């Protein structure tokens, strides 16, 4: 099964076009105000309108309230909701209310962290394995941190899953070969500064995934 890619935290037409041209299967639209990648309703509307329906629009949230969710779903024409630091019961509640697919981000540093994947099995549609950021970090992801991929060895995944955390054009092929991931997710690995995506880095990353 070929591996596909999500380019996350897009904020401009130019970088969205680069993701689409390179064959990204998913684009991530961030709705978390402390993030440099956060989008307004108008920005989300502009990017969503330019994204063809064959590409999944993923809204990225950190334990959001209903008002933020409703705005983002409408403006971003979202078909997947990605949750960080959100209780499984809340994810299940949102899935029932919206009828949309839900991803639960699981922050990984040790093998014990994988236990949380089982906690979300009855709530989310899929799991995004991400690297655990430092306790005092302002953001739950998108900081270029990676985890030890060998932690996934032999693990029985309770749901479909994707791999994130510190990926870039130089290491994504190794990550895919090492873990068997069929979907990879990148944000800071295609940036020149926090929140500033680079069209050449996006192209290089997607080319590496295709290889």
TrEMBL record:
**Annotated pathway, please?**
Amino-acid biosynthesis; L-tryptophan biosynthesis; L-tryptophan from chorismate: step 3/5
Alphabetical UniProt keywords: Amino-acid biosynthesis, Aromatic amino acid biosynthesis, Isomerase, Tryptophan biosynthesis
Reactions accelerated catalytically: N-(5-phospho-beta-D-ribosyl)anthranilate = 1-(2-carboxyphenylamino)-1-deoxy-D-ribulose 5-phosphate
What is an example of a Pfam family matching this protein? PRAI
Q: What is its EC number?
A: 5.3.1.24
Where is each N-(5'phosphoribosyl) anthranilate isomerase (PRAI) domain found? Answer: 5-207
Q: Give GO terms: molecular function aspect only.
A: phosphoribosylanthranilate isomerase activity
- Set out the biological process GO terms recorded for this chain's protein: L-tryptophan biosynthetic process
Per its UniProt record, what InterPro entries does this chain match?
Aldolase_TIM (IPR013785), PRAI_dom (IPR001240), RibuloseP-bd_barrel (IPR011060), TrpF_fam (IPR044643)
Looking at its record, which EC class is this enzyme? isomerase
Q: Which NCBIfam families match?
A: PRK01222.1-1
Which family is it part of?
Belongs to the TrpF family.
Write down what this protein is called. N-(5'-phosphoribosyl)anthranilate isomerase
Q: Which organism is it from?
A: Sphingomonas lycopersici
Upper lineage is:
Bacteria, Pseudomonadati, Pseudomonadota, Alphaproteobacteria, Sphingomonadales
């Amino acid at each position: 099964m070929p591996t596909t890619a999500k380019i996350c935290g897009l904020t401009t037409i130019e970088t969205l076009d680069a993701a689409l041209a390179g064959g990204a299967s998913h684009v991530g639209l961030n709705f978390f105000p402390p993030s440099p990648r956060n989008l307004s309703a108008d920005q989300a509307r502009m990017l969503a309108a330019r994204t063809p329906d064959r590409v999944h629009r993923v809204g990225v949230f950190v334990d959001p309230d209903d008002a933020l969710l409703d705005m983002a779903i409408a403006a971003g024409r979202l078909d997947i909701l990605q949750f960080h630091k959100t209780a499984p019961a809340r994810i299940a509640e949102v899935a029932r209310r919206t009828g949309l697919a839900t991803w639960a981000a699981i922050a990984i540093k040790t093998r014990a962290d994988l236990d949380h994947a089982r906690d979300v099995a009855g709530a989310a549609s899929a799991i995004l394995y991400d690297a655990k950021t430092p306790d005092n970090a302002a953001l739950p992801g998108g900081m270029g941190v990676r985890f030890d991929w060998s932690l996934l060895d032999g693990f029985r995944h309770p749901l479909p899953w994707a791999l994130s955390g510190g990926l870039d054009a130089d290491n994504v092929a190794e990550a895919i070969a090492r873990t068997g991931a069929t979907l990879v997710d990148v944000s800071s690995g295609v940036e020149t500064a926090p929140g500033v995506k680079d069209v050449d880095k996006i192209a290089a990353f997607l080319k590496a995934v295709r290889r």
